[in-house]
Amino acid sequence: MVTFKTDAELDAMREAGRVVAHALAAVQEAARVGVSLAELDEAARAVLDEAGARSPFLGYRPSFAPTPFPGVICASVNDAVVHGIPDGYRLRDGDVVGIDCGAELDGWTGDAAVTFIVGRARPADVELVEATRRALEAGIAAAVPGNRIGDISHAIGTVADAARCGMPADFGGHGIGRRMHEDPSVPGRGRPGRGFPLRHGLTLAIEPMLMAGGSDAYFTDPDGWTLRTADGSRAAHIEHTVAVTDDGPRILTLP
What we know:
Blueprint: H1 7-30, H2 37-51, E1 73-77, E2 80-82, E3 96-105, E4 108-117, H3 123-141, H4 149-162, E5 173-175, E6 182-186, E7 203-206, E8 209-211, E9 218-220, E10 227-229, E11 235-237, E12 240-243, E13 250-251
Antiparallel strand pairs: 1-3, 2-10, 3-4, 5-6, 5-7, 7-12, 8-11, 9-10, 12-13
Helix pairs in contact: 1-2, 3-4
């Protein structure tokens, strides 16, 4: 069921989103060559604890997962697209790192992701991250009353296709509010003018996931969580929680 939030509820979601933004900033500040993914998880966990927020990731177990998720962040490196487990892997020079984080505060949830490059960046990786950022910006710009979900998806897909990047067809954005995953779903590709209509108070996690090789094919690691590009190419994932408002899109996961 799709729910619409009041302006006061959007303000409450904004506070949860602010915690997410601070956690992601702490992770980026801690990330350098030699630091483990588990240490990045600890950096995010400290921010959530200080804010009195709960992690919607920790212990989360959807139907496809063999075990509950063990961290407060998803940490996806290089060919990992999303859902990477924050383990003992230590960052290396040139790694492309995607960090997804959520926070629940006073019953409301925020969800966002960043992708950054550790150390010396390859030009192709910079282009991948920038294309993903442009795809997110295009999707957010389409999140206005009178449009439909298909307009957001079409905007994302147009940027991804122009960059000759693939996207995992079975994964995309989603509604968000009291729970991390709510209706409606927000696919990475779609037809303009189709799908659920957008109006004031609808809150969405918009999250393009671009794969540099151009293929949409992926596989899941034996851990049952980590999605990897089938061709071994690198991937990027950037996300914001966004409210559709009569005054235009409101990004709820900024600092």
